[in-house]
Amino acid sequence: MAYDPSLQAKVKKICKISFGFSAIFALAIILSDAWNLITPTIVVQRWIAIALFTLVTALIWYAVSYKSKSQLYYHLLALAQMLVYVITITYVVYSQRGIASRAVALYAIPILLTAIIKKRTMIYLTAIICTVFYALASVRYFYANYGQAYKAELYVEVGFYCAIFFVVAALCSAITSAKR
Length: 180
Hints:
This protein is mostly helical. About 75% of the residues lie in helices and about 0% in strands. It is built from 6 helices and no strands. It has helices spanning about 5-35, 40-65, 70-95, 110-115, 120-145, 150-180. The chain is globular, with a radius of gyration of 17 Å. The protein starts with 6 loop residues before the first helix and ends with a helix.
C-alpha cells in the first residue's frame, strides 16, 4: 500500500465533524431537559456520554497532530473514533428502548465517516461493528424489559436494520471507489 499523505487531513476532518456531532448531541440534551422529555437520571447519563465522547475525540484530534509516516497509525485513530461513535450510539439506542429507538439511524454516521478514509475494508468493518453493537443493545434491552415487544419483532427489526447497515456500507464503498 502506497503512503497517503492526505490520510492525516482526512482523520482530522473526521474529528472536526465529530466535534459538530458533540454540539448537536449537547443541544438535543438541553432541549430534551428543558421540555422535560427525559428524566433527570437520563439527562445526567447523556451528559456523561457526550462528555466522554468529546474527551476521546479531543484526544484523537490531538494525536492526529503528531506527524507519522505510518498509515496504520492514522487508520487506528480513525478506527478509535468510529468505536467511540458506535459505543455512544449504542448507549442512546439502549436508553431509548432498544428496537423501539429511532436513534438506530445514527449508526449510519460512523459508516459514512469511515468512507472518508476511502478504505473498503474499514467501511465494511464499521458495518460489522455497528451490527454487533446494535444487536447486542436490542437483545439486551428486550430481555431486560421482557414483554415490551414480541420476540419475532425483535429479530425482524434487528435483521432489517443490520442489513441496512451493509446497504449503507455498500453505497459508501461504491461512491468512494468511483472517485478514485
